Amino acid sequence: MNIFSIIKTHIHILDVIQEYTTLKRAGNYWKGQCPFHHERTASFTVSPHKEIFYCFGCHSGGDVVAFITKVERCSPLEAVKHLADRYAIQLPQETVKQFTASKHEKELYTHVHEMVATWCIEQFKKSQAVQEYLKKRGITQSSIANFSIGYFPGGQQSIKRLLAFCKQANILAQDLIHAHILREGQAGFYSPYEERITFPIHDSLGRACGLGGRIFMPEDSRAKYYNSQDHPYFSKGSILYGFHQAKKYIQETGTVYLVEGYLDCIAFAQAGMPQTVATLGTACTVEHIKNLSRYAQKLYTVYDGDSAGQKAALRLTQLCWDVDLEPYVIQLPLGDDPCSYVAKGAAVKNLVDNAVTIFEYFIQKTVENSSGIELSLQERMSRIKSIIELIAQIQDPIKQDLLLQKAAQACQVPYDNLKKNLIERARRHVAISPEITHKNVQKNEANTSFEKVNTQIEISDLEKKIFSGIISRKYLLKPEEHAFLKLAFSSYLFPIIERFQAYKDQLNEVSITDLCADHEKEFIVSLLMEDEVQGQGPALEELFSQFYKKRWKMIVNGVKIKIAQAQKLNKNQELETIIAQFQNLKQKLFMKDQV
Ligand SMILES: [Zn+2]
């Protein structure tokens, strides 16, 4: 058994993929939103017993190793290593040696962050001032431990201690510089994290990939936060703080709470809302929202009532509606942030119960400002325009109308006026819609190998069904079936069937994707998944006879050629077999009908 087979026999594809997207059962197979392209519908499918995945939207497909290769952007060998680590699978000693010899750059990067986080936790235990500060902010000991909060002390001596600590793990100053933990100045090494509380940042699978630092001393005038710099393994635009811990709770509840800082995130989790995540000092991106929409249907967020907050909320609403995530707004008492609110011991559950849909929130803010003072006519007009903009983004005309009515009522503007405004706006904006842009992106990303095969080679539906039937049911062709299919079956698919048949003794160990060339894989997986989605059709025998009838002329010609060849070479035995099989088939297909 090779390492790929070892992995596949020990791991269930469903368990692996569920770590990246939520799947629901649909008969024999499971479906959900595709992790590789943006979509509203669930085109992504997984077949547990075929051990394959396939997306009917972007045509990505393959086995569990192909999935990890794609989602983690790594080589197949790295994917195997990743799966073996994650599911504690013992690989043969030789393979392990190979891996250790070429220790991957990403692993080193992760290792550096793990070591620095560990060191900062040690320093934290020694610093009374930082502990006092967090205590004052209401952060408990168990939160400190759960989120691995640490402290990076300042000064040359502490940098020296960090270097000595890392050296034990074979991490050098160069590695720390490369990971943006240290910088080299004229007077030696220094770090932007000095005198900051540290928050290790993890990717969705819980691997350390970044570090956040926050000032805490009142006289500190530097920026409040310092985060890891963007790096091939760390992107603020896609990573959310706390996500790896929150993921399972988000999946369970279908709900996610989105806040803005580390302490806000920790405070909410501490207050009984473990499904909280935070952006890393940047605005929420399409990628963040797309990620969350794979696990949640409802998103709760906290916003200030000021105009910057309004604009941010407007943007978020559009992002959410694009991916069918329903956004709600949690309203905190004036002057509070999530952390200060929790620190007061106030019940967070009440906040959630009183959350309003983002749309209601808008309407509310259109009539009055955050202090409850009525807005001027001009301000109101500009906010009503924003509402129209927002409603215009909705695809569903019924929902659009409903919201328009609500808006008209709340803003005390005639419904007809708003409707007219909406229609006029639509006329002006015909050309650009986010939907169209998304589609373009998808098309470019779509797999060329699939498109090539599907457009250049004509394969009848019947052939596709026969192919999937043979492969999925692990059906072994009888000699005469093999002979006749060879004469008339798709020249693209038949060699794959032949390869498959050649492994007949090991069919339980070999998966079909192992027998396909790379350029064949996606197309083949698409056929197998189509077969899965359509469910068990007619028996293979019935399909064979339909096929023989359709291709009768081709079969007859093929047989004639074979007979001529056999005669020429005096192969009498073979000649007899061919004629006998042909007569038999003819009898079966046509004579029976005449009786
Ligand atoms: Zn897809």
Describe what you observe in this structure.
By secondary structure, the chain is α+β, with helices and mostly antiparallel strands. Helix 17 runs parallel beside helix 19 (397-411), helix 18 (377-392) runs antiparallel to helix 19 (397-411) and helix 23 packs antiparallel against helix 27 (540-550). The chain is flat and about 100 Å long. It starts with a helix and ends with a helix. Zinc ion binds at residues 34, 36-37, 43-44, 55, 57-58, 60.
Helix content: 55-70%
Bound molecules: zinc ion
Low-confidence parts lasting 5 or more residues at pLDDT below 50? 431-447
Task: Compute the CA-based radius of gyration.
Answer: 31 Å
Number of strands: 16
Counting helices, strands and paired strands, the structural category is: alpha+beta
Q: Approximately how much beta-strand content do the residues carry? A: 5-15%
Number of helices: 29
| Biggest β-sheet: strands ordered side by side in the sheet | 1-2-3-4-5
Terminal residue distance: 53 Å
Summarize the structure.
By secondary structure, the protein is α+β, with helices and mostly antiparallel strands.
Secondary structure layout:
Elements: H1 3-10, H2 13-18, E1 23-26, E2 29-32, E3 44-47, E4 52-55, E5 61-62, H3 64-71, H4 76-86, H5 93-101, H6 105-126, H7 128-136, H8 141-146, E6 150-152, H9 156-167, H10 173-178, E7 183-185, E8 188-190, E9 196-202, E10 208-214, E11 225-227, H11 243-253, E12 255-259, H12 262-270, E13 276-278, H13 286-293, E14 298-302, H14 307-322, E15 326-330, H15 338-343, H16 348-353, E16 356-357, H17 358-367, H18 377-392, H19 397-411, H20 415-428, H21 434-445, H22 448-456, H23 461-472, H24 479-488, H25 494-502, H26 518-534, H27 540-550, H28 552-568, H29 572-594
Parallel strand pairs: 12-13, 12-14, 14-15
Antiparallel strand pairs: 1-2, 2-3, 3-4, 4-5, 6-9, 7-8, 9-10, 10-11, 15-16
Helix pairs in contact: 3-4, 14-17, 17-18, 17-19, 18-19, 18-20, 22-26, 23-27, 28-29
This protein binds zinc ion.
